[in-house]
Each structure stands twice: as C-alpha cells, then as structure tokens.
Amino acid sequence: MKVLVAVKRVIDANVKVRVKADGTGVETTNVKMSMNPFDEIGIEEAIRLKEAGKATEVIALSAGVQQCQETLRTALAMGADRGILIQTDAELQPLAVAKLFKAVVEKEQPQLVILGKQAIDDDCNQTGQMLSTLLGWAQGTFASKLEPNGDSLTVTREVDGGLETVALKMPAVITTDLRLNEPRYASLPNIMKAKKKPIETLTPDELGVDVSPRLKTLKVVEPPPRKSGVRVSSVAELVDKLRNEAKVI
Amino acid sequence: MSVLVVAEHDNTNLKPATLNAVTAAAKLGDVAVLVAGSNCHGVAEAAAKIGGVAKVLLADDPAYEHRLAENLAALVAKLAPGFTHVLATATSAGKNVMPRVAALLDVAQISDISAVEGADTFVRPIYAGNALATVQSSDPIKVITVRATGFDPAPAEGGSAAIETVDPAGDSGLSQFVGQALSKSERPELTSARVIISGGRGMQSGENFHLLEKVADKLGAAVGASRAAVDAGFVPNDYQVGQTGKIVAPELYIAVGISGAIQHLAGMKDSKVIVAINKDEDAPILQVADYSLVADLFQAVPELAAELEK
Ligand SMILES: Cc1cc2nc3c(=O)[nH]c(=O)nc-3n(C[C@H](O)[C@H](O)[C@H](O)COP(=O)(O)OP(=O)(O)OC[C@H]3O[C@@H](n4cnc5c(N)ncnc54)[C@H](O)[C@@H]3O)c2cc1C
Question: Which of B67, B72, B75, B109 should we substitute to test contact with A (largest number of A Cβ atoms within 10 Å)?
C-alpha cells in the first residue's frame, strides 16, 4: 500500500502571531516556520504503517513556495521515502489545494491519503474532505485510531460527543486529530540521509489546475483586547466579586 | 435570497447549536432548515418551531441515520442550487460534511464565521483567533460553517414552518457506521453551558477532576479541560477546549491549573467573565482573566466549593 501524506508549511505553533499594521495579513518575515503539527501526526502514522509492514512507500506532498522544500525535508528525515512539491508563489486556498492533490493522486495511485484535520494558520479544516470528495472516495476525519484490514479501513474519530467508529472502503482519505499518535523527532543520521532522498517538483500548470482564489481577504485586524482584570486575595473575595460585581453566579 | 441551514441532531433531539446557525442565516435571507436522518420526524417538528424558520425540508432515509458525510453531502449539494447560501454550525459534524458540499458545488467554503458583514462578506478568526479576517466570496453559492459563539441562538419556540418531504440522494456505499462511545453526563453540554469550569495539567490526575465536579454541581456548570489534560488521559477528548477542540463563550469560565497557551485561549477568550486559579503568578492565563487567584488549586478549589455552599 502506497501512502501519500500532505504537509503544509505554517508559522510555528509557538510564535505569537502579529497582525501587519496595514491590515493586509499577518507578519511572516523573520518568523519561524514549521510543519503544521497535524501533518507531523500524519507523517508519523504513515511511517508506523510502513514499519508494521502495512505500507510499502510513504510519499510526502506539499504545495506552496519553494521553501516548502524544508517542510518536505523534515518529513523525509522523519522517515518518508520521497517528496513532491507543487511549487507556486500564488495564494492557495483549500479548494485549489484539493484539486492539485487530486492530480497528484491520479499520477501516484496511493491507497491511502493522510492530511491534518486543520492547518493552524487559516484554521480552515477543509482540504481533506474536499480531496476525498473530488476523488469520489470515503473520508475518515479527525482520526484518533486507524486499523487497515485489506480493502477496508476502520477509523475511530474524535467527535463533539466522544468517539465514533466508521469503516471506510479503500482507497480513502484520512485527516488526523491530536490523539492519533505522538510524532517522533528526526535523528541526526536520518536528517543527513534525508538530504539524499528525492524531491520532485511540479507546477499547477503542469497539473492543469486553475488555482485562482475564490475568497478575497478584504482586511485582517487584531481581535479587540480584553480589559485588564484584577487579582483577588482569597476564595471568599472571588466569590463575593462573582456574586456582587460581575453578577454571574 | 434564501438560505439553507443543515440541522444537527441525533434523530431524536435537535442540537441547540443549530439555533445559532439559524440566527446567522436570518441575516442573509429566508431560512429553510434541512433535517436529514432516519425516523427523525420529531426533529423536523422541533425545527419547524424555531423562530424565523420559513420552511423545513425533511429527508428521512436509513442512509442518513448516522449522517455519514459522503451520503449527507450528496443530498445537501443536490438541494443547494435552490439557495444562495448553505450553512451549518462549525461542530465536528458540520466540519465533516460541509467541505464535501463545497467541493461538489465547486465553491469555496467559508469556515467558522463569527460575523456576517453582507451577503458575500464575512468575518472569521484565523491563527487561533489571534487575527480576524474579513473575506469576500465570489462564488454563486456560499457554503459556510458558523461559529456558534458569534451568534445568539434563535428562539426554539414561536415558529410554525411547513414541513416538506424531499427525496433522498442515495447511499454512496463508501463508508459505514460501526459504533460510537459518547460521554454520558448529567451536566450541560460544553458549547451551550452558562458556566464552565476547566482543568489543566495542574490537576495531576483524572481523579482530581472530582474537585472541579463539586464546584460544577453548585454552579450547574459544564466541565472542560486543556489539551494537556486530555492527552494525559485525565478526561476524554470531548472535554477539550481550544483552537483544535471546542470553542466556548459562557457567562463564566473558570480555568484551574491551566497555563493559558494561545491554543487554549483561542477556545475560551470570548467568555464574558474569566476566572483563573493558578499557582504561578506569571501564567499567561492571568493576563486574560477578569479575576485571578494565585493559589494552590488543591486548597482553593475545595474552598471554592465550600464557599458556594454558603
Ligand atoms: C496543534 C496544536 C493544537 C493545540 N490545541 C489545543 C487546544 O485545542 N486546547 C488546548 O488547551 N491546548 C491545545 N494545544 C496545547 C497548548 O499549546 C498547551 O500545551 C496546553 O494548552 C497546555 O495545557 P495546560 O495549560 O493544562 O498545561 P501547562 O501548560 O503545563 O500548564 C499547567 C498549569 O497548571 C498550573 N499548576 C500546576 N499545579 C498547580 C497547582 N497545584 N495549583 C494551581 N496551579 C497549578 C501551572 O502553574 C501551569 O500554569 C495545542 C497545541 C498544538 C501544537
């Protein structure tokens, strides 16, 4: 079984994001970039499938600017076999990314495609579901457990009320949730080895995909700040304030 | 303009989050609600009573019993051309199905909107709520998920919409429901609770969550958690509040032993009043709290339960 895993380059989860003064977006110059954390979970899951003898090849796939090569190298250092970058400087929205990935799936014919449930930059939570739809495949979103058995895949999903289990016909698209696994760190020898692994570069034009954005961002602003609060010195004072000042209990 | 809201339900009860989506929809045009399920006529009747709903579409078929995304999206996409907008609440169910609808219609989805600025313009939080983007859609049909905390619930009673039966769109055969393990609780649901008390890594164990439950009993509160508490196995995944968990905005949110990482704040910083109980006076949660108590939770929380007794 060939497994394709999507990886997105995003502002690192630990960076305090700042809105640009001109309201066009957020500051990205000199900001640490990393692989979207949910995609690390995706790569980890694919590697574990390979280690368990259930997957034969793990391909990491990214779309975006040339620097996404670094994100792909991280995936290769974790254990992916090779990388594919769909390189473009254009703004990419989820529907366009799903179309690009569909074109790659048609070339590569994987049995399983894994994406993160959301990217921590635009928080869209769309691309996996869209890709699955465009392919006419089943989807298992917000996965916390995967059990492949032949041409079916059992997926435990994190839902608002608890957990749900579904059986999917393969090939299928999975999106990862936080509890699927804990991603490994790449070891130094593996980082060195990853430098020699191949990364193929494609373009949206070569794949015949129109990536024009459907949504126009008119402005980006900071959320209104909360007014500063007070320290209370005892539980009794806290309860008194909640009862008589805030009047919420 | 007419707007379709995809109702969230379990074949028996309409989920309250649907009411918030109806409010967002009413800002855009006449509201029709789709109830797709199996033996779910009671839900359609409940939807017909929502204030401001003009019409209820009922698709009653075994293919929708568990609202599998592949089947439900096909139905919604088939109905969508009669509408200018299709909305659902940004719950795990809405997030599962709506991007499929958008892909079938070849339109963008506008995720998790917190305000409606116009027929094609919406506000949505990005970067864990550290920024608010105003976006404009050029698509003929707008497929939208709604952040429930951005809109008041529509009145559950007062309407008398007609219920119209619609044909099902078939079973894709792609996926099958196997089972579910839902958390049972007498407490209010996190996303609709008036008061929430949440615990973090500082709680040290699942057992210690009983301390929070004692306070929750006094306040009629829901109990939530940080990701660290869920990852450590103290409580189930559906307790998680945050960027990648539930988004809540209760009247009162009490954070206990939670440091206040941006991913946690993303899920609760629109609460009306925030209380933080933390032993570290530099914990970031104290910067967003209206009332902060720097104390050991193992002393403060039992004291709080006792004080509320008075
Ligand atoms: C992709 C991604 C998604 C994430 N999504 C979420 C999310 O949705 N929700 C979420 O919550 N987090 C999320 N996180 C994790 C987040 O970054 C933090 O790691 C997490 O919120 C920390 O949880 P915590 O505050 O319970 O633990 P800690 O940060 O370890 O804080 C524990 C706090 O307890 C206090 N404490 C300890 N003992 C006591 C005591 N006896 N009395 C009083 N106080 C005490 C400490 O002072 C400390 O402030 C996400 C992270 C990533 C990378």
Answer: B109
Output the domain CATH number for residue B224: 3.40.50.1220
B16 and B118 in a common domain: yes
Residue B134 in any domain: the answer is yes
> Of A11, A239, A248, which is closest to B308 when you measure between CB atoms?
A239
CB neighbours of residue A167 within 10 Å: 18
- What is the spatial distance between Cα B274 and Cα B251, in angstroms, rounded to a whole number? 8
Domain count across chain A = 1
CA of A82 vs chain B CAs: smallest distance (Å): 28
Partner-chain contact A133 B100, CB within 8 Å: yes
**pLDDT classification of A13: cutoffs 50, 70, 90:** very high
Based on the fold, state whether residues B207 and B64 are members of the same structural domain.
no
B178 within some domain = no
Considering only CA atoms, which of B215, B223, B213 is closest in space to residue B248?
B223
By percentage, how much of chain A surpasses pLDDT 90? 98
* Average pLDDT of span A143-169: 96
**Structural domain contains residue A249:** no
Domain-located, residue A14: yes
- A131: nearest Cα among A88, A174, A69, A177: A174
User: Could you report the predicted ipTM of this complex, rounded to two decimals?
Assistant: 0.97
CA distance B165 to chain A (A): 26
Instruction: Identify whether B223 is part of a domain.
Output: yes
- Reported as a single tens digit per residue, the pLDDT across A90-145 is 999 999 999 999 999 999 999 999 999 999 999 999 999 999 999 999 999 999 99
Q: Which residue of B has its CA nearest to A37?
A: B244
Using CB atoms, pick whichever of B137, B262, B289 lies closest to residue A229. Answer: B289
pLDDT of residue B89: 98
pTM of the model: 0.97
Q: What is the pLDDT of residue B310?
A: 87
Task: In whole angstroms, give the CA distance from residue B236 to residue A161.
Answer: 10
Q: In whole angstroms, how large is the CA radius of gyration of chain A?
A: 21
Domain ranges, residue B94? 2-165
Closest atom, ligand 1, to C-alpha of B200: 26
| Total count of domains within chain B | 2
Return the bridge partners of B179, or none: A165
- Closest-CA residue in chain B for A174? B96
Residue numbers of B between 30 and 49 with CB closer than 8 Å to A: none
Same domain, B92 and B199: no
The enclosing domain of A75 has a CATH number of 3.40.50.620
- Determine, yes or no, domain membership for B177: no
In the sheet that A199-202 helps form, which strands lie side by side, from edge to edge? Answer: A199-202, A82-87, A57-64, A2-6, A112-116, A172-176, A138-149, A152-159, A162-169, B175-182
Q: Which residues of chain B have pLDDT under 70?
A: none
